[in-house]
Design a protein that fits this description.
The protein starts with a helix and ends with a helix. It contains seven helices and nine strands; from the N terminus they run αβαβββαββαβαβαβα. By secondary structure, it is an alpha/beta fold. Strands 5-8-7-6-9 form a five-stranded mixed beta barrel, surrounded by four helices. It has a single domain, classed as Nucleoside phosphorylase domain (Rossmann fold). Helix 4 links the parallel strand 6 and strand 7. The chain is globular, with a radius of gyration of 17 Å.
Length: about 260
């Protein structure tokens, strides 16, 4: 099935089940960011993502597996996607981009992408939020198909990054490199990414951002540094460490994100 037709069907299902004809902003909440959904407004409907056409139950501990319709405090509608499909799940790039395309089909004009990631800057301790200014796609894949050419020059909205700094002027920004996963990067790969200009490394976000731009949405990305990347940190990496850092920082970064959403 054409991926945009699949997204339309999923959006129609969401509208039918929630009674909300159109949403305004979509949030993809990665590790550590889930609490933001409770702070931006009232959740009026919660759907099991696996019941929505084209979505799957989450394969990663720490992801909720739900799709929520939230009425924000300023009367907007937020579509909170807690069922992210990662590239390493081998379901194909269409599955990775499906949530973003569904959000666009549901009317969303703004896409907020979050993640937990490894940091290459030693001053970014675990629990540090970092704005994404650009990305390097190291997956050797794209959600675009055929002769589809999309300009990514200003992919991550400078306007929304400015709003974020109004909330917290101390926020740093960095370039996010998406690796394929699910293994963590080797120290040599981390150094390669650093030489290429990356300061954040992870396994999500870039492909979703490209799909968001193709769909005409304004894209905002923010990472939570959950650990120093391999070779930067003297300690071995583990998913438990990612979850622990996300849980510790969760209330603070969720409040930060909610304030940014309130300015959109």
């Amino acid at each position: 099935m054409d991926p945009f037709e699949a997204a339309r069907l999923a959006a129609e299902h969401i509208a039918r089940e929630t009674g909300v004809e159109q949403h305004d902003v979509a949030l993809v909440l990665g590790s550590g960011w889930g609490g933001a959904a409770d702070l931006i407004g009232e959740t009026t409907h919660t759907l099991d993502a696996a019941t929505v056409p084209g979505f799957h139950a989450p394969a990663v501990v720490g992801h909720t597996g739900t799709i929520r319709s939230v009425l924000t405090t300023d009367g907007k509608r937020a579509l909170v996607l807690g069922a992210r499909t990662h590239f390493y799940e081998r379901k194909g790039v269409r599955a990775v981009a499906h949530g973003v395309r569904t959000a666009a089909a549901a009317g969303c004009k703004t896409l907020v992408l979050t993640n937990g990631c490894g940091g290459l800057n030693e001053s970014w301790k675990p629990g540090t939020p970092v704005l994404i200014s650009d990305h390097i796609n190291l997956t050797a894949a794209s959600p675009l198909e055929g002769a589809t050419f999309v300009d990514l020059t200003d992919l991550y909205s400078s306007r929304i990054r400015g709003l974020a700094r109004e909330v917290d002027p101390t926020l740093d920004e960095g370039v996010y490199a998406q690796f394929t996963g699910p293994h963590y990067e080797t120290p040599a790969e981390v150094q390669m990414a650093k030489v290429m200009g990356a300061s954040l490394v992870g396994m999500s976000t870039a492909l979703e951002a490209i799909a968001g731009r193709q769909s005409g949405m304004e894209v905002f990305g923010i990472s939570l540094v959950t650990n120093l990347a391999a070779g930067i940190s003297p300690e071995p990496l583990s998913h438990a460490e990612v979850l622990e850092a996300g849980q510790a920082a969760g209330p603070r970064i969720s409040a930060l994100l909610a304030q940014i959403i309130g300015k959109l």
